[in-house]
């Protein structure tokens, strides 16, 4: 469906990952080896939090309907700025139209959200799920994607207080409404969400066959494994990535996030929690 990447760590020029990695997100937009579609050319988005921004700062967003491989502005931005936390998403549109308001990541106040996957039977469940959004949040739904509706459902159900529980409640709502409309497998996807300080990444599907998701191992450990790897010197000790598919083929660099798991990245490292596991 799509490919995405999230970075948390010491301030970094995003181009280091977005453009320069062997299997960068831009390379994946042209030729994805693990994606449901090989080409993800239906627009892209880049969202970032400024360096040294206080807690609660709103992220900046750049969206384009051009393919990521064809957009010079993405190259200019990612080479010019420094950020300790950023998201990048390349889109393969399933049904909603190609327009800027349908490009991820989505934003509400200090929260940022992106998704790879789909709500099953969207045309059947769209009305019920949209009406479940808090009326005060509804005016902020600017596009037509199922992903943006899910984000606002999670906001409605307490994202600011407990992201893992809120995303879980939002997906359970999707499954409940889907089953009411005879949708066998209502939910499929990986999700990234951030408050500007941490990143929560989720892997879950109703069928138990979710799209791929990985995060990087600790940089100090990787330097011990690969003492001659010049590229690792570009990253600080706190640097972590979450990706739809690995950016390199170096053994030991990438840890697969298990099915029905939430991976929490925060200063000091990462941890896994069971997510909607039966």
TrEMBL record:
It holds the Pfam family GATase_4. Keywords: Glutamine amidotransferase. It comes from the Bacteria. This is Class II glutamine amidotransferase. The keyword Acetylation does not apply. Residues 2-278 form the Glutamine amidotransferase type-2 domain.
């Amino acid at each position: 469906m799509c490919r995405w990447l999230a970075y948390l760590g010491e301030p970094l020029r995003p181009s280091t990952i977005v453009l320069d990695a062997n299997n960068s997100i831009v390379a994946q937009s042209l030729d994805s080896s693990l994606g449901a579609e090989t080409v993800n050319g239906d627009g892209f988005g880049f969202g970032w939090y400024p360096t040294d921004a206080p807690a609660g700062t709103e992220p900046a967003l750049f969206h384009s309907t051009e393919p990521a491989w064809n957009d010079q502005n993405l190259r200019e931005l990612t080479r010019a700025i420094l950020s300790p936390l950023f998201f990048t998403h390349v889109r393969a549109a399933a049904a909603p139209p190609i327009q800027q308001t349908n490009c991820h990541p989505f934003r509400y106040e200090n929260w940022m959200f992106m998704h790879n996957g789909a709500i099953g039977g969207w045309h059947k469940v769209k009305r019920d799920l949209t009406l479940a959004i808090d009326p005060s949040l509804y005016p902020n739904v600017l596009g037509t994607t199922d992903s943006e509706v899910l984000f606002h459902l999670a906001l409605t159900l307490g994202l600011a207080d407990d992201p893992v529980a809120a995303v879980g409640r939002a997906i359970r709502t999707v499954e409940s409404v889907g089953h009411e409309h005879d949708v066998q497998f209502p939910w499929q996807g990986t999700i990234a969400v951030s408050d500007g300080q941490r990143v929560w990444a989720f892997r879950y599907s109703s069928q138990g066959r979710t799209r791929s998701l990985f995060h990087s191992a600790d940089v100090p450990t990787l330097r011990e494994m690969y003492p001659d790897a010049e590229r690792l010197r570009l990253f600080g000790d706190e640097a972590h990535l979450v990706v739809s598919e690995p950016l390199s083929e170096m053994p030991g660099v990438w840890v697969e996030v298990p099915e029905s798991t939430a991976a929490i990245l925060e200063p000091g490292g990462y941890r896994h929690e069971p997510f909607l596991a039966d």
